[in-house]
## 1
Amino acid sequence: PGELIFTGTPEGVGAVVKGDVITGNVEGLTPIAVKIV
């Protein structure tokens, strides 16, 4: 009756910095994009 969404950081990935854009999506929903300022 529900969904579990797990997130994590794979090895070798650096920190987010100014100017990065983080995107995400879930099937059936509008994608989202967040720009780090």
Note: The first strand starts at residue 21 and ends at 24.
## 2
Amino acid sequence: MRKTLFGSVGTHELKYLDRAILARLRTLSPEYLATLPDVTEGLENRIAAAVRESVSFDEIIDRVCTKRYTKARIRRILLRAFLDLPDVQKPDKLRVLALDNIGREVLKGAALPVVTKAARADLAIEARCTDLYALGTKYPHPCGEEYTKEIYYRDN
């Protein structure tokens, strides 16, 4: 067993998020799906039909997947829909989760602003995604850990 980012023993697996993903996907319209990156040529209708007919995340992927639409592409689209990330966004800051002395030196030359505390930055999307990620273990974690966890610093 290994420790997760949240400090508990266990691993994050998509199967623990299956019902949450299905619940979110079932609320989405084909019009919304059409706004996601990589959704072209009526793929939104194929996805919407598969969501209505499927009882698991993997089953949706299997129903939508073709030679033209790979499993990786479909998985990416579905997870973007689940996380409500319709746009491809370039980072405007660097978020530090852990570092050592070498990392400190590298960050001194960073072109983007460096953030070490979530409470000091506009990280609503990241916090929402972390809260959903926290559900991906056998024993889910509470919300808000994005704002309370300190960065991990290892002294070389």
Note: The longest helix spans residues 71-83.
## 3
Amino acid sequence: MKYPAVQNFVNGGFVNASSERKLHVISPIDGNFLSTVPMSTTRDLDEAVRAAKAAFPIWSKFPIKERVQVFFRYKYLLEKNLKELAELVQEENGKTYNEAVAEIEKSIELTEFACSLPQLVTGEILEVSKGVECRTEHVPLGVVASIVPFNFPSMVPNWTIPNAIALGNCMILKPSEKV
């Protein structure tokens, strides 16, 4: 096994799944055994949802300008580790190196968009008739989920994670079991 067994990440830390069942991750490039991923159960999902629900009241109260700060650092880490991340996508997914680089570059671009959200979700007040105003306000939804397909293991999560979290939501992410 090239990489350590994958664990679930819940409430700020890595935890084992409640099931002993594992799925082997095999590189489509050379057939080598890369790692194992847990076959998480409904109980594991319920625990993740409980943790996300508990975090939501605190996280959602932070101003959006503070919430996006984490993504400026995240963008820096994506850029700094682009080559290594592209090699991982290539190895786990079977993409060419250039395809994998393009996927990480798109992930960076999507993160940049999330960093701009404070300017895009300001809301507005419109006078719709004399003495009547309509107000648009953006508020966090709560706990949201994203299921990642095998063919875009970096790009799809980066469509959802930065935006959902920057907008004040808490996130449950289910990556593909194939990568």
Note: Residues 97-115 form the longest helix (19 residues).
## 4
Amino acid sequence: MLIQFKLSIRKASKDNLLAIKANYQPIELTISFKKTITDEKRIKSFLEQSLKNHLVQQSYFSRSPHIYETYGAPLSYTLQKQNGGYQASVYTWGIPRHPAQLYESLSYFLLFVILFLWWYKKGQTITPGRIFGVLILAAACIRFFCEFYKENQVEFEDTMWLNIGQLLSLPWAIVGLFFILRPKPKAVQKIQHSPTAG
């Protein structure tokens, strides 16, 4: 079976009011069956039982579901014959996610531009280690805040107030503060020795 995903807009029914209130997005799953599968009853059975059960399990029992399918309601789909094979369009709801990786990568790029311009304009007057400290502190802060929008990577993080990525960012923030706040190194004075007459 070849499964293709595409978005579509559809009218809401009473069964889908919960999905609309939760700001889920309507999606259409297009499933193209091999031309060798010609039994329409078997295809309908697959859609109404196997696929429906799978979508419901993903909705209610998955740790981070991406699809919402109403339990107890019949599967909303259309089945048609195209090019000698069957094609089903299944209508369900998608759960939107924040593109946290894009937020994070754009923030890091912006941080690079700011630090580069700072170095370019005032490079000679900046205390040694200051740019490094700002880089480490800002990167730790960016990661800390972007982690709020990411999915937890392991299940035990669901019960934690801060996830592992945020906890690992805290020591780096302290290291960055150290490099920012440490005193400016004292200038080394060269001592010239004069030859002594003997």
Note: The longest helix spans residues 100-122.
